[in-house]
Amino acid sequence: MKSSLARTGPGYGRGEAPRIRLMVVDDSMVARAVLTRMLEADGGFEIAAVAGTAEDAIDALAQVRVDIILLDLEMPGAGGLKSIPKILEAAHGAQVMIVSSLAEEGAEETVAALALGAADTIPKPGTGRFNGRFSEVLMAKLRALGRVENQHPAPPRSVASIPTRVMPLRAEAVGTLRLVAIGASTGGIHALSTFFDALPSKIGVPILVTQHLPAPFMSVFARQLSNASGREAIVAEDGLRLLPDRIVIAPGDAHLTVDISGGRLIARLTRNRVSSGCLPSVDPMLTSAATLLGSEALGIVLTGMGRDGLEGAMALIAAGGSVIVQDEATSAVWGMPRAVADAGLACAVLPPAKIARRVAARAGAD
């Protein structure tokens, strides 16, 4: 049943912090009503529009500006998953948060949605279970995604509207490259897809990836990353040999680090606590690369919340290595990259495709 509503209020009053403007897209009238009541009960959110299909959502986005779109995947018509690119195109910089019963741990649809550009996902609970833990987690995710937009309530976030930042950049290390280590979190799967799409098929060095995801997602993530990149991508096992052009991914329940055995680079898995609280964490990966390879290692920090990767970047720079970070305009959340950039540790701040070209040039593969 067709259902859409756009509300055109400003979302904030004089002297008040702007509320995060949301669109709820779900074919269930009950789910729309429950989510609307739950979110509007919190003074930090405003439901600016609702829709019952992806097609209705795209139509509504022509009339109303929002910060975040809560999107179900199972709907009549084209459905939520296939419609993500069109929704993002119509959304004028808004983020997409998947709220769906399909977003279970390990679900193919979850990783596919993230690869298509969704910023984050959360499983939709059964009727009567929207309060409690679900409500707390959802609101925390929405606040993190909406933070950037609400620093500048109008116009909506775009490349043109993000203020230019002047930050010091370091010279990139020169000479032999033996390892590329990439860290990412929220929005990272889409950024990784863009990065690998622009990277030459042969750069001649192993590639490590630490992406914040639960363990059950990892085999699906590896398979999709392999398809997107056109190269082998596997979940790390302790002692696994690191081969040129093979992507090795941190499992969801361990840190991925690099070691050497018999003169060959291998993967090591550790589970020690780290200051970021993340498991897996980008910091141990970059720190181990610094200790073992120094200037021959290149770190990359992509979109994500928090500061994971900062300590590892410090260690890598101190050992003579280099770090490139994703720019604000293309990041779902400019937290992890910003922490590294603001600390003066980055040699470049670029979109994923341009990062890939820098990597290729360093590896002599462009």
Could you describe the 3D structure shown?
This protein has 366 residues and is α/β, with parallel strands linked by helices. The chain has two domains: 4-151, Response regulator (Rossmann fold, 3-Layer(aba) Sandwich); 179-363, 3-Layer(aba) Sandwich (Rossmann fold), CATH 3.40.50.180. It contains eleven helices and 15 strands. Strands 9-10-8-7-13-14-15 form a seven-stranded parallel beta sheet, sandwiched between helices. A six-stranded mixed beta sheet has the order 1-3-2-4-5-6, with helices on both faces. The protein has a two-stranded antiparallel ribbon with strand order 11-12. Helix 6 packs parallel to helix 7. The radius of gyration is 21 Å and the shape is elongated. It starts with a strand and ends with a helix.
Globular, elongated, flat, extended or rod-shaped: what is the shape? elongated
Q: So what's the CATH class of the largest domain? A: Alpha Beta
Broad structural category: alpha/beta
Strand content: 15-25%
Gyration radius over CA? 21 Å
- Strand ordering within the main sheet: 9-10-8-7-13-14-15
Helix content: 25-40%
Task: Please provide the count of β strands.
Answer: 15
CATH architectural grouping of the largest domain: 3-Layer(aba) Sandwich
What is the CATH third-level topology name of the largest domain? Rossmann fold
Number of domains: 2
Could you give the order of the helices and strands? EEHEHEHEHEHEHEHEEEEHEHEHEH
CATH homologous superfamily classification of the largest domain: Methylesterase CheB, C-terminal domain
Mean pLDDT across all amino acids:
88
Ends: how far apart? 52 Å
Largest sheet: 7 strands, parallel
Poorly predicted runs: 149-164
- Number of separate helices: 11
Main location: cytoplasm
Organism: Sphingomonas alba
Subcellular location: Cytoplasm
EC number: 3.1.1.61, 3.5.1.44
